[in-house]
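@channel sequence for tomorrow's demo:
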Amino acid sequence: MYYFLSLIAGSLLAFMVSSNGIVGEAAGNYASSVIIHFIGLVAVVAVLLLTKAKFKNLRSIPLWMYSAGLIGIITVLFNNATFTTLGVSLTVALGLLGQSVTSIIIDHFGLFGLPVSRFDTKKILGFLIILSGIVIMALPA
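structure tokens (generated this afternoon):
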């Protein structure tokens, strides 16, 4: 089930980069970020109201962890900036490489209080395959 949800999230990511990039071209990067995040806010508020969900344990979250919202905005801005030059597939592939490297570091050191999952040599093969795919994708046609 979780593998399937991750697959769906990845599929949505490609769609998101495309649609955000088109909105960015039409409205400009900064205005599109406001539009995109406002629509996201409206959607989440609607879900909260429909499900009657309540906020839990907000006081237990360190203040600096809320910087994830800023990271989301920076991600949208950077994707919008690279979308027209690199295209969707290369933008997403490079983004996934960055996510993979960062997540390996987080797992290896157990950052943010997460369980430690040490980096082992078999993961190097996976990175080499990903990197070779990106190099091939980036070659001029």
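heads up for whoever presents: Residues 2-27 form the longest helix (26 residues).
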